[in-house]
C-alpha cells in the first residue's frame, strides 16, 4: 500500500520554535517528529511514501536527503489545508492509500492495527482516539465499527472519539477534494470531503487506537511527546565518555563524542546527543532531551526540557519544563521559573489569546539564537522570540517578540559614608 505523510503546515501555535523550522523537524530524542512518522510506515511495509511539503520545504528536503530515507517529495504550492495538500497526488495514486499527518506521534503497532482492520473489512479506515476535550477536534459517531457521522469541533460532541489524523482512503477521495469549498479559515479540509462521502453512502470503518497518540499542536504537546519518546522508544546506550564520579540512573543515552564530567548526576530517561559537554556537577533530571553540540555547564540543573542543538547553558542556571531553541546562550544565574506562586494552571499566549496548558509546571518557550545576560529570570509560560537579547538582571514577565533587545534600568544611589 502507498503512503502519504502530510508535512506542509507552518504551525503558528508552536512559534517561536517554528519561525526557523517546520514543526515536523523538531527533534525529540535525537530524531525529528517526521522521522518517527516515516519509520512507522517503513516498518509496516508502506511504499512508496510521498511526503507533502510547503513551509520551509528546502529544510525538509535537505533533512530527508541526509537520512537516505526512500521517499518522494510532493509540493503543496500554497498552504490551503489538508484537503488541498492531497490534490497533487491524484495522478500518482490509483488505489487505496494510507494518509498520516506528519505532526502525530504514535507507534508502529497502531499503524499495524489500522492496516489489519482494513484487510479484515476490505473498507476504508479512519483512525480514532478517545480524548478528554472532543470539542477541540473532528469527532466521529461510531455504530457497529462503522462511522455514521463526522462533526468538526462541535459545541456539544456526540462522542469523545476524535479523528486521529491517520486514514486508509479510496482513490475516489480525489473527486470530492476537487469539489470542496473553502472553510472560514480559507482552507480546504480533508474532513469536509470525508463527511460528504459518508453522506453519499461510502462506508468507513472506525478503528480505536490502542497505544500512545499525541497530536503536536502546542508547545506542551512537544513536552508530552518527548516524555513518551524517551520513556518508551529510546534505547539506553553510552557512546561517549563518562568521567569518574558520575552517577547514571535509569535509561540514559549519551551520544558519540559527548563527555559527562565528574560530579554530574543524570536521572533517566534522558537523551544526550553527539559532541555535547555535560558538567562538571550538572544535574540532568528525567525526560530531558539534549540535542547535538549542547553545553550544560557547572552547577546547572535541567528538568523535563528539550534543548536544541548548539545551545550553551554554561553555569549556575535552572531550566525546568522548557523548550529551548538552537544556538542559544544563557548567562550565569539565568532561571526559568516553571511554577506560579498560587500553583494554578499556566496559560500561554497563542495567536493573541491566553490558552490554558493544563499544566501547573511550564517554563519558557524560546526560539533560536537567544542570549541572556547574568541573573535573568523568566516567568512561567513566557515565549521569547528568536534572535533576542535579554539584558542582565532582567525579570521577564511578558512575551518577547523576535529580534528584540530587552533590558531594565536601575538607579544607583551613592552617598558619602558617615
Can you tell me about this structure?
With 418 residues, the chain is an alpha/beta fold. It has 2 domains: 2-217, Spore Coat Polysaccharide Biosynthesis Protein SpsA, Chain A; 221-406, Hexapeptide repeat proteins (UDP N-Acetylglucosamine Acyltransferase, domain 1, 3 Solenoid). It has 7 helices and 39 strands. The strands form 10 sheets. It has an 8-stranded parallel beta sheet with strand order 14-17-20-23-26-29-33-36. It has a 7-stranded mixed beta sheet with strand order 5-4-1-6-11-8-12. It has a 5-stranded parallel beta sheet with strand order 15-18-21-24-27, with no helix packed on it. The model has no long low-confidence stretch (mean pLDDT 93).
Distance between the termini: 87 Å
- CATH architecture field of the largest domain: Alpha-Beta Complex
Number of helices: 7
Gyration radius (Cα, Å) is: 23 Å
Text of the CATH class of the largest domain: Alpha Beta
